[in-house]
Amino acid sequence: VYEKTDSGSSHTYPKQCGTLKKGDYVMIGGFPCRMVEMTTATTGKHGHAKAAIVGIDVFTHKKHEDSCPTSHSIEAPFVTRKDYPLVDIDNEGFCTLMLENGSTKSDLKLPTDEDDMEMVNRIKACFESGKEVLIGVMSAMGQEKIIEMKETGSQSKKH
To answer: Taking burial as the number of CB atoms within 10 A of a residue's CB, which of 6, 27, 71, 94 is the most buried?
Structure first.
């Protein structure tokens, strides 16, 4: 699902397991996840403390688990979040979003998973009633997903 690229830019950085906190982003099994639980256990007199990590995939909402010695590093994805004004929604659910430089992007589709349907319905209803909508987009591992919407309150002019 996630393509590995061997270009100079990296999608991840190392983070020490012992410094992780709930809510941090980590790579578990090759998937970018938000950590929801971590427990630590020592293995014995000379053993390393191990952290058991549970995370939820930021794109699919699937649960992933891993363990790692607290003194070792784990890969953490670079995750960004940006808001874009919604310009249009086509018949297939692709959104046209206004970028900071005034150009548009039309490569993001409204989410189709059950967990996001309430948000998707709100986006459509606000847009169809002529309200201005800001779309929150999360980016990680070279992928993007619409994760939230905000109504700006003002009415946009429909052509």
So the answer is: 27
Q: Is 128 helix (H, G, I), strand (E, B) or coil?
A: helix
Phi-psi category of residue 30: left, alpha or beta, with phi > 0 → left and psi -120 to 50 → alpha: left
Residue type, 93: G
SS (H, E, C) 36-64: EEEEEEECCCCCCEEEEEEEEECCCCCEE
DSSP H stretches of helix in the chain: 117-128
Segment 20-24 mean pLDDT? 95
Tens digit of pLDDT for each residue in 89-137?
999 999 999 999 999 999 999 999 888 999 999 999 999 999 999 999 9
Rounded to whole angstroms, the Cα distance separating 34 from 59 reads: 10
Does 154 have pLDDT greater than 70?
no
State the DSSP code for 156.
P
